Amino acid sequence: MGEKKEVARLVLDTNVLVSALLFRSEASVLFDAWRGGRFRLAVSDPILDEYARVFEYPKFRLSQHEVAAIMAEFVSPYCDRFRVQRGPRLCSDPDDDKFIHCAHAARAAALVTGDRALLALGPRCGRVHIISLSDARMRYCL
After folding, report:
1. Which class for 22: exposed (0-12), middle (13-18), buried (19 or more C-beta within 10 A)?
2. What mean pLDDT is reported for the chain?
3. How far is CA 49 from the centre of its chain?
4. Banded pLDDT at 103 (limits 50, 70, 90)
5. Is the predicted pLDDT of residue 12 greater than 60, yes or no?
6. Overall pTM > 0.85
7. What is the pLDDT of residue 30?
8. 124-125 vs 128-131, strand pairing mode
9. Within 10 Å of residue 26's Cβ, how many Cβ atoms?
10. How many C-beta atoms lie closer than 10 Å to residue 68's C-beta?
11. Among the residues of 23-83, which ranges form H helices?
12. pLDDT band at 48 (very low <50, low <70, confident <90, very high)
């Protein structure tokens, strides 16, 4: 019998997740990888709230029913939820701190982002690896 390999957890910032689910883009490969069990999505309640809120932006033309369906069918079944305590301010954009705090709490392999404020923190913020979408594709999708 072979050993069961631990599946990596990743935190995806909102733009990465939205691109993965709504557009044919570089991020689409992530969607296939996480649905295929290559990694698990690590989230917190504030992150889930932001995902849902952004899907409701008028530019996406999704009804509340469609947003609820996306969250129920494509996000929730493939994620691990973590209760995250509010931590110190780490990023120049305080709204982005929730992603770092979640990655830390989840002991995530990485935070995947295209956000300049998060990427400006460098390749690591404490124990959290911050990687670009291209790096995530090479590490978790090939």
Report:
1. middle
2. 89
3. 13
4. very high
5. yes
6. yes
7. 87
8. antiparallel
9. 16
10. 13
11. 28-35, 45-55, 64-70
12. very high
Q: Which residue type does 113 have?
A: T
Domains of the chain: 8-140 (3.40.50.1010)
- What percent of the chain has a predicted confidence (pLDDT) above 70? 96
Dihedral of CA atoms 11, 104, 131, 112 in degrees, nearest 10, equals 10
* pLDDT value at 5 more than 70: no
What is the Cα–Cα distance from 50 to 52, expressed in whole angstroms?
5
Cβ(81)–Cβ(105) under 8 Å? no
Q: How far apart are CA 14 and CA 43, in angstroms?
A: 11
Q: Give residue for tokens 């999708």.
A: 141
DSSP string, 3-35: PPPPPEEEEE-HHHHHHHHHSSSTTHHHHHHHH
